[in-house]
Structure formats: structure tokens, C-alpha cells
Amino acid sequence: MIFPKYFNWNVELKTISLVNRQIMTVHTFFIALTLFLIGALCFTSALDLINTKLGHSITFGLGVFWSVRLFVQFFVYSPKLRKGKTFETIIHIIFSLLWLYFASVFLMIYFK
User: Fold this and answer.
1) What residues form the membrane-spanning segments (predicted)?
2) Which of 31, 58, 63, 78 could form a disulfide with 106 if both were Cys (CB 3.0 to 4.6 A apart)?
3) Cβ–Cβ under 8 Å, residues 73 and 99
4) Half-sphere exposure of 101 (CA within 13 A, CB side)
5) Domain limits of the chain?
């Protein structure tokens, strides 16, 4: 896994209680699983998402989800986390554009 190694979780998470460490690990797994399943849904059921009432409801939910994620990127995470760090700044820009794209596509499908 990329995140645990990059963020040095073997060391960082040892300073918190076992329950918090396990919550972090389990939640990270389920976030990754959810994102994988959303991607699988888009690849396997694109026409249903575009052409059905249920699909439109799902795309609205996904549009809101990615819009909130984009908001969090700018207004919850501190700019200090990337200030003066080239790699972190590039990743911030790339993922911000990706979340903007996801939010725009899903909301355009819903509002078409």
C-alpha cells in the first residue's frame, strides 16, 4: 500500500491507542474499497447511470460527494502541509483538478 508507507504509519500510528490505530486502518481500507466500487460502477453501468432515474440519483450523490471532497481540500487541510514542498503541491493540484472533473461530470449528468 502506498499511503501507509508514504505517511510512515508504522511509526506514526504507534503513538495512538490500539482502537484508534485499528479504526484508522479499517476506515482507510473501506474508503479504498468504496472508491474502487464507485469506479467499477461507472465502468460497468455507465449507460444506466446516464439514462435511468436511479442512475441520476446516484450521479447526484456522487457529484455532491466529490464537490464536498474538493471543498475539504481547500478549506479543511492547511496550506502549511504543502507550502514549500514541490511534490505535495503538484499532488494537491492534480487531485484538485481530478475532484473538480469528477464533481463536474457527475453533476452535469444529473442536471442534463
Assistant:
1) 23-46, 58-77, 89-111
2) 63
3) yes
4) 6
5) 1-44, 46-112
